From TrEMBL:
Domain DUF2169, chain residue ranges per copy: 22-290
Record's compositionally biased regions (Low complexity): 433-446
InterPro entries for this protein: 5peptide_repeat, DUF2169, Pentapeptide-BTB/POZ_domain
Protein name in UniProt: DUF2169 domain-containing protein
Organism: Sorangium cellulosum (Polyangium cellulosum)
A Pfam family annotated for this UniProt entry: DUF2169
Compositionally biased intervals (Acidic residues): 337-353, 489-498
Region spans: Disordered: 327-362, 395-462, 477-498, 586-609
């Protein structure tokens, strides 16, 4: 399901069953400030306030349909003037709702009656301070009930004050009741055999719909709120005894795109403002709108997209306005479509130039999340899935007509009333299921739900932390810099076709043209700087300009155009910067002046496509490119720079005289027992030397030759060995923790007795045929490494990264890979027998025929279309594993422990699951055609919509399983199976 929404609007869709008819219920909410109600808050700000005030287990809303409006207030009593008093009162008024409560200091019952109340300056108005206590069903959280000497409640109704020990007043409060309390649960209706046979899993027919109202009765109204009502709050703010405000005066619109047998239909439910939440001491409020439409599938599989917007009251836009915005977003993802939801789907701000509220500014991280789609919409990858599902639907402006209105007005639910709609001809669509209700703390976007999004976010966060640290060291505020909250210093005017290139030079941020008329001058300039072999003192600005000219010619730029572009660069400023960088070189690191510049680990600035079509941190590449020009980069940036050596071009080989000098120096130094830690040995020829036990920790060995060398027990911790050649070297018991061996050749290396590669960089390293048995690869990055025929028996590679790796022929017996990530790997027919794969993530992996026999794979996750067809999982431990959507055709899960596993939409055609333990497993929409589940344990499992044609369930235990709308045939066999309490609801008739 694709969600199109602005950043200032929260949207939570869920399926609600009215008897046995599913509805998509859409809840939209927006926060506002009391002083500036028209200045609507960003969604993350609302969640932040809600979690801080309601607690991690608190609910902003239960996401149920409501037939009446209600007011919920979360806050404290503050006696006027911040003066401690024994008693005070609070009052809230909104439209027809007007409620007052007395708030009294702490008291207890004594021999002579009540004690005097203790003065207070602040008292939470919560159910814990209202009458109740253990055994008091109407408020088990409260005080005053039970032990005769118990504390008395602090919050009471003026009409029902406690005067005697035996008084049992109704609890007084302003927040919502728990649904299990009798004030609400008594309205649930009759749950008898008729309900079970005719309504389940929906609610009873005689349900009182006010069950879903959380607030006390005197905080509910007939009908719904308009949206511009005035409100008053008294004594609930430390400095404002009386607050007068108004709701923000907005309305919500919602459009639900449904897949039907005739194509695609767009419906508009009426969105009613049914809930107002106030947080008086925060001077913040939230309004919640709700509406719903009937759908065909009870998991919302027929919902393609939901668009939700806000309008100013009295300024309603035509439905076609939203239709025209949504329609092009139903097809494949189009990077040319503007990301302008906040401009198009929200009311025009009263004062666009007004500064943001202090607690409502998106941080740098939030901005990156926004660009990746985690805020203001679904994550990019989820959007692409929905877009792919809608591809070819033929959704367009032509052929649009209004959907027929429901003729039976009396039967229509109040919260699902449609107002308008359109229908489009086209093919069927696939859509992701809707999210369900969850507490406030768990309803935030979860990057871990999608492997690629999680990895992208992990890389971005690591990069942000890395760059933030360096910015702090330079005296800058990283949040201000990354989010561009403030103006740049000394900005130069830029043409509309130019982008701001932000650079850090000599402790100063400046603006300079990066892209002019489509030519990326900044990138060419950075490349010219990278090609400069010597330190700044040896490379003049004129030389750099000439290299830049050559680079542009190489890019096919015409000579006159190149001259025009070159004239746009401030060469005098560049000369000043270069001199400043040279002047700042540390005396203690003269070799660093000749070092190649480095960048952050991995691929910190991937191409647009790798980030879902949009760079998540536009400023970072320019920032790193400018730093590349500083000759002291490697010495100054230390460990962070070490992680990036492999992404730079390989260093040139030394001339024979210099190479021989370094070789003799190293050989002599080692024989004398001298430490070679931190030495610059870039490009040195140290092949076939006996360097057993040598200390080369932190040494710079880029492009060095160590072929056939004896490096047993050597200390290479933190060394830079990028592009080095270690073919046939002996690394037994060597320490390479944190070393960078990116693009290094380690073919046929020997590491008997283990080698330490913890947190090492082995990106694009060639390890073909290497013996790394017993090695420690914990946290290592082996992205794009060649591991064919590598001996990895007994390795510890917990939390290691294997991206685009070919493991064909690798030996992994006894390996411990817990928490590792395998992204786009080839593990076809690889033997993982007995391997610890706990919490491992496979992303778009190719693993057909792989062997996982007796593997420990608790909480393993397989996402983004991974394939393990014909794989052997017999006897494996897969408790809690996530195999949703995975291709498992013909795989063997005999005797596997799969309790609680997620197998929704998995392809288990002709799979063998004999005697497998699938208790509480989820198999919704799984394809079990021809599968064998002989004697399988399926207790409490869920197989809704599963296809079980020709499947064998003989002697299986399906006690308490749920198989609603499961599809079988005459060849499906349940002979000898335990079907007690098996729940089966036949498939329902679809629309159209």
């Amino acid at each position: 399901m694709k969600i199109v929404k602005p950043m200032r609007l929260g949207v939570v869709p869920r399926v609600f069953m009215a008897q046995r008819t599913p509805h998509l219920l859409v809840t939209a909410f927006v926060g506002f400030s009391y002083d500036r109600p028209a200045r609507l808050l960003y969604e993350p700000t609302v969640w932040k306030v809600a979690m801080e005030e309601l607690g991690e287990d608190g609910l902003l809303d239960e996401l149920n349909p409501k037939t009446r409006g209600e007011l919920l207030v979360t806050g404290r009593c503050y006696p006027p003037g911040r003066v401690a008093r024994p008693a005070s009162s609070v009052r809230v008024q909104l439209g027809a709702i007007d409620k007052s409560l007395y708030v009294i200091g702490d008291r207890t019952w004594g021999l002579l009656g009540m004690s005097d109340p203790a003065p207070f300056t602040e008292m939470p108005v919560t159910w814990r301070n209202a009458f109740g206590g253990e055994g008091f069903a109407r408020n088990p959280l409260g005080k005053g009930h039970g032990d005769r000497s118990a504390a008395l409640p602090n919050v009471e109704s003026p009409r029902h004050l406690i005067r005697a020990r035996g008084d049992r007043p109704a609890p007084a409060g302003l927040d919502g009741y728990d649904i299990a309390w009798p004030q609400r649960f008594s309205k649930i209706g009759t749950c008898d055999s008729a309900w079970r046979d005719e309504c389940f899993p929906g609610f009873a027919r005689d349900l009182d719909p006010t069950l879903f109202n959380m607030a006390p009765d005197d905080q509910q109204i007939d009908g719904f709120f308009r949206g511009d009502e005035a409100f008053v709050v008294e004594n609930m703010h430390p400095d404002r005894p009386r607050i007068e405000g108004a709701l923000p005066g907005i309305a919500s619109r919602c459009f639900v795109c449904l897949k039907t047998s005739d194509g695609v239909e767009i419906r508009e439910p009426a969105m009613k403002l049914d809930t107002v939440r106030l947080f008086p001491h925060r001077e913040r409020g939230v309004v919640l709108f709700r509406g719903g439409v009937e759908i065909s599938e009870d998991d919302a599989k027929d919902v393609v997209a939901v668009l939700v917007a806000c309008e100013a009251m009295g300024a309603s836009r035509p439905a076609a306005y939203y239709h025209e915005y949504l329609t092009p977003r139903l097809g494949p993802r189009n990077p040319d479509l503007p990301d302008d939801e906040d401009d198009v789907l929200m009311p025009e701000p009263e004062d666009p130039e007004a500064p943001p509220l202090p607690d409502d500014q998106l941080s740098g991280v939030a901005s990156r999340l926004r660009r990746q789609g985690f805020l203001g919409g679904t994550p990019d990858r989820a959007v692409q899935r929905a877009s792919a599902a809608a591809a070819g639907a033929g959704v367009g402006a032509a052929g649009v007509h209004e959907a027929e209105a429901d003729e039976d007005e009396e039967e229509r639910l109040a919260w699902s009333e449609p107002e308008a709609g359109w229908e489009h001809e086209g093919e069927d669509h696939e859509a992701d299921p809707a999210p369900s209700a969850a507490p406030a703390a768990t309803m935030l976007p979860d990057a871990a739900d999608d492997g690629e999004d999680a990895e992208t976010l992990r890389q971005e966060n690591a990069l942000a932390e890395w760059a933030g640290k360096r910015l702090r060291d330079q005296g800058f505020d990283p949040e201000a810099y990354l989010s561009h909250q403030g103006p740049l210093e000394d900005p130069e005017p830029l043409d509309e076709s130019e982008e701001a290139l932000v650079s850090l030079v000599d402790g100063k941020i400046t603006g300079r043209a990066q892209t002019i008329d489509g030519v990326d001058v900044g990138a060419l300039l950075a490349e010219a700087r990278r090609r400069a072999a010597g330190p700044p003192s040896e490379v003049s600005v004129s030389q750099t300009r000439e290299r830049l000219r050559q680079a542009m010619e190489g890019e096919g730029v015409a000579q006159d155009k190149a001259e025009e572009l070159l004239s746009a660069v401030d060469w005098q400023a560049l000369e000043d910067e270069t001199r400043a960088a040279q002047a700042d070189l540390p005396d203690e690191a003269p070799e660093a002046a000749h070092a190649q510049p480095e960048e952050p680990a991995g691929d910190p600035f991937p191409e647009e496509e790798a980030l879902g079509g949009e760079l998540a941190w536009d400023e970072a590449p320019a920032f790193a490119e400018e730093l590349d020009g500083e000759a002291s980069f490697r010495a100054e940036w230390g460990d962070e720079g070490r992680l990036l050596a492999h992404v730079l071009p390989a260093s040139a080989r030394l001339d024979s005289e210099e190479a021989l000098r370094l070789r003799r120096d190293v050989e002599a130094g080692h024989k004398e027992g001298r430490s070679l830690a931190g030495r610059d040995l870039t490009g040195a020829d140290l092949s076939h030397l006996d360097l057993e036990g040598v200390d080369l920790s932190g040494a710079m060995l880029e492009s060095a030759f160590l072929t056939g060398s004896n490096l047993r027990s050597a200390n290479l911790t933190g060394a830079i060995l990028a592009h080095a050649n270690l073919e046939g070297a002996d690394l037994s018991e060597a320490k390479l923790d944190g070393a960078n061996l990116g693009s290094a050749c380690l073919r046929d290396v020997k590491a008997l007795g283990g080698v330490a590669f913890a947190e090492a960089v082995l990106v694009k390293a060639d390890l073909w045929g290497a013996d790394l048995s017993g090695a420690d690869l914990s946290g290592a990055d082996l992205s794009e490494a060649n591991l064919r025929d590598t001996n990895l028996e007994g390795v510890v590679a917990e939390k290691a990264t294997f991206q685009k790796v070919d493991l064909t022929g690798a030996r992994l017996l006894g390996a411990r890979l817990a928490g590792a990530t395998f992204n786009e790997v080839n593990v076809t027919e690889v033997d993982f027998t007995g391997v610890d794969l706990s919490s491992v993530t496979f992303i778009a992996a190719e693993g057909d025929g792989a062997i996982f026999r007796d593997a420990i794979a608790r909480d393993l996750a397989s996402v983004r279309g991974s394939s393990f067809a014909g794989a052997d999982f017999s006897g494996a431990t897969l408790t809690g594993a996530n195999l949703m959507g995975t291709r498992l055709r013909g795989s063997d899960f005999s005797d596997a422990d799969m309790r609680g596993a997620l197998l929704n939409e998995a392809d288990l055609t002709e799979a063998t699951l004999d005697r497998a333990n699938l208790a509480e497993a989820m198999l919704t929409r799984a394809n079990l055609t021809g599968a064998s589940l002989y004697a399988a344990d399926l207790r409490q499992s869920v197989m809704n919509h599963a296809c079980v044609r020709g499947a064998i369930f003989e002697k299986a235990n399906l006690f308490g399983a749920c198989a609603d709308r499961m599809v079988g045939d005459d060849d499906t066999s349940f002979e000898g199976a335990n079907l007690k309490r098996l729940r089966v609801i036949p498939p329902r008739r679809h629309h159209g």
